[in-house]
């Protein structure tokens, strides 16, 4: 089990992301000697731990059908949330997951990376967007993850 903590201010009031990554593969990151960004680590089981002020680009990749478990804290208490999957230039309308935060603003949900978009077209993009909206869209975050179509 690997744990990566990333913190970068987006916009005040948006979300801080710590990512708990579970994989059978090797390490992630770059060494001090190289200037080239590391290739993203590929996962078929990814757990996102989300809280205020998240980094939108965690440098991870998922495969077709990957299981995503999202645990969140620091959101508005007792608020409805929706999680959408998309890609640059695509529309998203049907949420991949929905739910409600508890009295402390925490929640957990599970969803899979689908094999096709809502319109029946296969996923062929190299980069996916995970869009999280809380309440009436007052709180939102978009995460970029790489997609490996195997």
Describe the protein.
The protein is mainly β and 150 residues long. The chain has one domain (2-26, 37-148): Immunoglobulin-like. The chain has no helices and 9 strands. The protein has strands at 2-5, 15-21, 41-52, 60-72, 80-86, 97-100, 107-112, 127-134, 139-148. Strands 1, 2, 3, 4, 5, 6, 7, 8 and 9 form a 9-stranded mixed beta sheet that branches. Strand 8 (127-134) and strand 9 form a beta hairpin. It is globular, with a radius of gyration of 15 Å. The two termini are 23 Å apart. The model is unreliable at 1-34 (pLDDT under 50).
Overall 3D form: globular
Count structural domains: 1
Q: Please, what is the CATH homologous superfamily?
A: Neocarzinostatin-like
Q: In the CATH scheme, what's the topology name? A: Immunoglobulin-like
Terminal residue distance: 23 Å
Low-confidence stretches: 1-34
Q: Report mean pLDDT, rounded to a whole number.
A: 74
Beta strand count: 9
SSE order, one letter for each helix or strand: EEEEEEEEE
Please describe the biggest sheet, giving its number of strands, its sense, and whether it closes into a barrel: 9 strands, mixed
**Percent in strands:** over 45%
The chain-level structural class is mainly beta
Q: What's the total helix number?
A: 0
Give the proportion of residues in helices.
under 10%
